[in-house]
Amino acid sequence: MTKRLTDLAKSETGVILDFDDSDPALSTRLREIGFAEGDNVTPLHFGLFGKNPMSVRVNGAQIALRREDAQAILLKAVKSEASA
Amino acid sequence: MSDGQSLRLALLGAPNCGKSSLFNALTGGKAKVANYPGVTVEYRKGDFTLPSGQAIELLDLPGVYGDCGHSMDERVALDAVRGNLEGERAPDAIVFMMDASHINTHLHNVLQAKNHGLPIILVLNMMDMAARDGITIDLPALEREIGIPVISCVAVRGSGRSLLLDYLEEWGGDVSFGSAATPKEEKGDLKALQAKARSITSTAVSRVHQAETFSQRIDNWVLHPIMGLAILFTILFVMFQAVYTWSGPAMDLIEMAIGGLQRGAAAILPDGLITSLVVDGIIAGVGSVLIFLPQIIILFAFILLLEASGYMARAAFLVDTLMAKIGLNGRAFIPLLSSFACAIPGIMSARTIEQERDRITTILIAPLMTCAARWPVYFLIIGAFVPAEKVGVFSLQGLVAFGLILVGIVFALIMAAIFKRTLTKGESSGLLIELPSYKTPVFKDYIIGLWDRGMIFVNRAGRIILPASILIWGLMSFPANATTTAQTWAGKVGGLIEPLLRPIGFNLEIAISLIPAMAAREVAVSSLATIYSIGGTNADDTLRDLIAANWTLPTALAFLAWFVFAPQCLSTFAIIRKETNSWKWPLFAFGYLFVLAYIAAGVTYHVSLAMGLS
Ligand SMILES: Nc1nc2c(ncn2[C@@H]2O[C@H](COP(=O)(O)OP(=O)(O)OP(=O)(O)O)[C@@H](O)[C@H]2O)c(=O)[nH]1
Ligand SMILES: [Mg+2]
After folding, report:
1. B534: CA distance to ligand 1 center in Å?
2. Which of B189, B195, B205, B513 could link B527 by a cystine bridge, Cβ 3.0 to 4.6 Å?
3. pTM for this one?
4. Which candidate from A53, A61, A63 shows the least CB-CB separation from B330?
């Protein structure tokens, strides 16, 4: 099963593999703001209800997004915090 | 581009990279600067001259991440660059700005921008922040790889801008430079450009690994799901308490000055109509609103601090969990928070919301936020009817004001939930916002911002309140033989709508004051001041005393409830008309707010009567 950004726990790092293109406008938006294949992503904070939204560290920037959007980011592997 | 003709340069780049800061510094302009993405939503022009004498026309644009134009503000920027803005020619070249401390995330944006086919240079701004974060950038390597000139910059410091100015100086003198800098187009889709950008940064940018940045350490508290919300609530609470408690001494001073002015004018001027016009009409009317200047200044001292620090985007993140439940767009929070200053910039900043139906929803509820123009109304009535006591360490009056603000917010959320399930139905998402690093506010920007907000308030007193006060005075003073308010012209006009307002507890004076207050809410206060000043016998009574003596408590409460909702601001509906390009939405907004105001005032009046308040 594919891992998604939404599957990561707090402070867990994943590497972006691809984007779910079922909503092309969304994946364009995600790319434009700075997510790309090969980037390390680490969720840092979650909202109060249903862990929504989440704020994610990517390439030294911090981006806040809702889970509906975050699930479009597909991950390669899940590393532990120590190896991030 | 020969001598004498001005070069037009467009400032393009991601949101919050410092475009407006640079624009202000170079042109002496007054574009709004704040530390969150999406501050600028409309283009702005400014001029400056290089030492060589070359005139430059600079365009400050809304931030864009790509070239799709997902939202209205992005489309404004892209239209400007493409020469599609009505009545504006295309720029001669692009000054592409980028936040150097986030170069890894954003570099592909400049590759994309090369495809506009205009001469382009890359200005790496915020080099100070990049240095602080341990980022070093190999500029020559970057220039080589991207194929365009790269200049480092710190927009907020004079010395930080000198490289850019030197560069432009050289450029302006050389007419052929423009074509030399015209880049080759970048081939490939976004994915390919990103891959290219990542490979460039992997060689040209190095980063000392830092355990945890300053911003991150603060965020562990500020973005904590529970603690963060508690901090947000505390900040807002302290802000509104401060507006209440700190403004006292300054208000007393202004009140004394106004009283002195009235007595002075009465002593100098001959008895009769002229004196009445100056004392009861102009000074009482305009003074009754100007007295709230200290509150406005304190309120904005807080708001501007929140905006400049980087907290705004965090607050949006914290509240989003609730917004998502209601069905509101994540980007709606910042426009709504801006509406606490004034609904007009709030409604404009809704341009950052991608989905049209969500933008409309946000625009419709923005007038429910407690804008600065409501403060005079709230203060007057609260001052007259709520004792100046302390509840623990809090001022009771401040608590009541905070309550009114909360009522506005709660109803905004309820209405949004209703609209999202009926009129503007449809899925909504899209928080997608960069949380900027925290920054110390730039002192000069802060003071200018505060000054501007104060002047807007004072100018309104001259532009709207002064004529309205003279009008009310005129209608109140004739016919000369009138002995009661009802016999004056104003009383006749007010009498037309008074029957409609009597069921919700309003008297004739209120009915009269509400008519000119259609222009702006605070005119209700100035009109009441003029009405009671003309009728008043004792010159030393303040408007507060007169209202406390003349109104019952249920009437006062109903009046407050009315102003939580009342659609009394023509400019708000004019801007809704402009931003939605239709008559439907401004009329609808007006209608629903009017109905809510009427019901709220009526319910408040009758419930408090039934409770035996008087
Ligand atoms: N430290 C530092 N801060 C800067 C610099 N340039 C701008 N800022 C700050 O960065 C924030 C954003 O600046 P703006 O000029 O509003 O950015 P903008 O690009 O116009 O943003 P949008 O209008 O949202 O697109 C403000 O808090 C500025 O004070 C810089 O060179 N160094
Ligand atoms: Mg700007």
Report:
1. 51
2. B513
3. 0.91
4. A53
